[in-house]
Amino acid sequence: MAEVVTGFCMKCKQSRAIQNPARTTMSNGRIRVSGKCSSKDCTGSISKIVS
Ligand SMILES: [Zn+2]
Predict the structure, then answer these.
(1) How many A from CA of 24 to the centre of ligand 1?
(2) For the chain, what is the domain count?
């Protein structure tokens, strides 16, 4: 199941889709999705709290 998660890329200064999003449950029970910016020329990483 392909899920597209978008987040704000600090490098692009724009909202981008996260490439290879990985979910991490933090110690406080919230879920964070992190991965690389999907923009071709961008090496930024994106992290977003989803719940
Ligand atoms: Zn970017």
Answers:
(1) 21
(2) 1
Asked, for residue 1, whether it belongs to a domain, the answer is no
- Kindly give the distance from the C-alpha atom of residue 30 to the centroid of ligand 1, in angstroms, as a whole number: 24
Contact between 31 and 23 (Cβ < 8 Å)? yes
Range of the domain at 28: 6-49
pLDDT in tens, the chain (51 residues): 567 899 999 999 999 999 999 999 999 999 999 999 999 999 999 999 998
Q: If you search the block for the tokens 């996260």, which residue do you land on?
A: 18
pLDDT at 3 (0 to 100): 75
* Cα of 25 from ligand 1 centre, angstroms: 24
Distance from Cα 4 to the centre of ligand 1, integer Å: 15
What are the helix (H) ranges across 1-51? none
